[in-house]
# Entry
Amino acid sequence: MAVNLFYFLVFPGLLFSATVGAFLSWFDRKITARVQFRKGPPLLQPFYDFFKLLLVKETILPKQGSPVIFLLAPIFALFGATTAAVFILLPLFNISSGFRGDLIVIFYLLTIPSFSYVIGSLASGNPLAAVGGSREMKLILSYESTFLLVIAGIILKASQYFDLNSVITIQHHSKPFIESISGIILFIVAIFCIQAKLGLVPFDMAEAETEITEGTFIEYSGAPYALIKLTKYIMLFILPAFLTALLLNGFVLKGAGILWAVLKILGIVLLLTLIRNTNPRLKIKQAVSFFFVWMNLLAVIAIVLAYFGY
Amino acid sequence: MFHFGGASCNNCDIEILDCLTPRYDLERFGILLVGSIRHADVLLVNGSINMRDRDRLIEIYNQAPKPILVVAIGACGCTGGIFAEGNTFAGPVDKIIPVDAYIPGCPPKPEAIIAGLVKLVKSK
# Structure
């Protein structure tokens, strides 16, 4: 029990993944600034942002709408992200081997933050938040099926083992899945899914700050908004870590392997940041057809290729 | 930082936007423009505040999570400037809401705005 609490609250869970995620969020902002020939924020800026929101700022409850659900939604989001972090990082750091079928559990846990944002935005009673919430909902519907297809492709490549630990060990014993045609296609599709899951620019129509003024999060202030920020930091770390485990051979935590592990995560975040900085925001219709038609098509092609062993 | 533009001549608006451009880059100090007043720590007010703007300014100020810092930018925001005697003028910003810093100028240079904001951050 105490060990489980430690897993959840400190080491691969809340504290560790939030700290790493905050540094990754600084990395993302710094790269964005460098792409735009700016200097960018100081290293500890994400921590300043978080503690300012948590400790100093006032929390305003919406007059219309439901305050209880409005306040519970960020807690659900944080819970989902942290639990997903535990289930992803335990096999990845080789602490425990997980259980059969944990890929499916992780898939569902990773959708909890997005769903909580929708619930929270609809509970706030703000019309712009409702627009943001409905867009987020459509986005979830479009990218989740694609993400499930990616995981199906991975399971097929991992000779139909349903747990993350076997996916990693199979890659350790033979070669990383990305060193094959179907692996490369799955990687491309997964990158776009992660981009949409994180709500980064081509797919940020749910929070579109210029047209619907932060949409889903418009009414959040103070501590609940701090929890949302924390959830975003954690997601920014665990989604690249999940992708590393699925396709890029996981982590080998000895000697130069530690450096490689850091470089893999930073590389994926760099890729996400560059996509975010070189693309305009899509309309929700374009995003839905992008995932439903093109990304699903690519994922199905990758699955067929994987079936024939390419 | 949240930007409230009163009945301004747009000149201060452009100087404020200049602060966010690569040349001046306010993000060095961790300052970002946010879309919703609920996420803001600093409320920038520029332009002369007329009868119609006043209610909206008060509403925005009440919607902001406290503590919030208010910065009046430009001659119109600080004193009323050339509009001070106008018959629709509703008083400079500090008659309507409490102001923490004044950045005068018509328009103030981006350097002046940055200097004002940094002084404000250091004094708090």
User: Anything to note?
Assistant: Chain B touches chain A through 16 residues (CB under 8 Å). DSSP finds five helices and four strands in chain B. The helical segments of chain B are 11-19, 51-63, 74-78, 93-96, 110-123. The first helix of chain B runs from residue 11 to 19.
